[in-house]
Write a structure and sequence with these properties.
single chain, 345 residues, Quinone Oxidoreductase, Chain A, domain 1, Rossmann fold, seven-stranded mixed β-sheet, six-stranded parallel β-sheet, 10 helices, binds NADP nicotinamide-adenine-dinucleotide phosphate
Length: 345
């Protein structure tokens, strides 16, 4: 079998392919033939060593993948050969709140999915929605679950709420689809005019170009009769935080998904510009990390019931995995960048 490994950091050329023998499952292990994986911005951060959790040198990269169960250990009860599965991003997080003892992540401190076969613990796996292709299912573990947890894990949104999404990255696109499904009004920001129509088709009620309009919070307030957003998925981090605080409603919530600027990691944010607004408007800022396995299962039921289809931008073959990284780094995609691992999908 072939796997890619992070042999050197800070360069996409440091992702090297190697040959191995196929591993055999221990009592609680499940052997999965990976069919497709999908890339997220975090996979670039891990490669560039700007991610908060350090990657193990030589680790198999990428958290998100889908595949077919080939063999199971003697003690495995939830899966059987032939089942279609995804692994949870936080392999040890079953339910409840995240804690320091369950921070291990696939494709970072644990081997990930850019491989032909993965050996995973049964507790870390979920069944995938039946209507999805391998490529579509591979997009769920990080981007979709992050959006789902942000919308359901803290201040749960309800019909009539206004949800604000920032940029048209993987997390934001799922947030648009889920928030629309939940009956919310969705206001979406993008820096690219040509994406606006497609964001509307996905469920955005209003699209604002945040490159052309630096003070976009005023437009959010105007669109909401001055009330502001009920929930902001802050995927821009320090790049956009000042404006998102202005755009958030009184007593409402910002789900903070990154501690740095997504596009400009060195971007500072002036605390004196946001603290008084946070305080006066009684806004809660809540960090959030992807999600637990039980949240993943709940999300998959909703995806199944509402026949949600993930948006895929481009699929690269396994042999061109590095090209997928180069493509994602350009930031021009709308939808997920996927790598197909098997020709049998
Ligand atoms: N806390 C968590 O659990 C969690 C989980 C997943 C991701 N995140 C974080 O959420 C953020 C978004 O992640 P993602 O995977 O959704 O990102 P992504 O797919 O790479 O999307 C980033 C978006 O930023 C916008 N952008 C504007 N200028 C850009 C440029 N020069 N280069 C690249 N992108 C540019 C683009 O949208 P437009 O073209 O529409 O402007 C792009 O689609 C990241 O900071 C990531 O670390 C956090």
């Amino acid at each position: 079998m072939r796997s890619y490994h992070l042999e050197a950091f800070k360069t996409i050329e440091g992702i090297q392919i190697k040959e191995h023998s196929i591993p055999q499952p221990g009592p609680f292990d499940v052997l999965v033939a990976i069919k497709a994986v999908s890339l997220g911005r975090r996979d670039l951060y891990i490669l560039n060593q700007t991610y908060p959790l350090a990657a193990r040198p030589g680790v198999i990269p990428i958290s998100d993948g889908a595949g077919e169960v080939i063999a199971v250990g003697d003690a495995v009860s939830r899966f059987k050969p032939g089942d279609k599965v995804c692994g949870n991003y936080f392999a040890h997080w079953r339910d409840g709140s995240i804690g320091p003892d369950i921070m291990d992540q696939l494709g970072c401190s644990l081997d990930g999915m850019l491989t032909e076969y993965a050996l995973l613990k049964e507790d870390s796996l979920v069944h995938i929605p039946a209507h999805l292709s391998w490529e579509e299912a591979a997009t769920l573990p990080c981007a979709a679950l992050t959006a789902w947890s942000a919308l359901t894990g803290f201040r749960q949104v309800s019909a009539g709420d206004t949800v604000l999404t920032i940029g048209s990255g993987g997390v934001s696109v799922f947030a648009i689809q889920f928030a629309h499904m939940m009956g919310c009004r969705v206001i979406s920001l993008t820096s690219k005019e040509n994406k606006a129509e497609r964001l509307r088709a996905l469920g955005a009620d209003h699209v604002i170009n945040y490159r052309l309009n630096n003070e976009w919070s005023k437009e959010v307030l105007a669109l909401t009769e001055g009330r502001g957003a009920d929930l902001v998925l802050e995927t821009g981090g320090t790049d956009t935080l000042e404006q998102s605080v202005q755009a958030t409603g009184f007593g409402k919530q910002i789900i903070l998904l990154t501690s740095v600027g997504t596009v400009n990691p060195g971007n500072p944010v002036a605390l004196n510009k946001i603290l008084s607004i946070l305080f006066v408007k009684n806004i809660t800022m809540q960090p959030s990390f992807v999600g637990s396995r039980l949240a993943f299962e709940a999300m998959n039921w909703a995806i199944t019931l509402h026949k949600i289809k993930p948006l895929i931008d481009t699929v690269f073959p396994f042999e061109e995995a590095r090209d997928a990284y180069y493509y994602l780094a350009k930031g021009e995609q709308l939808g997920k960048v996927v790598i197909s691992v098997s020709a049998k999908s």
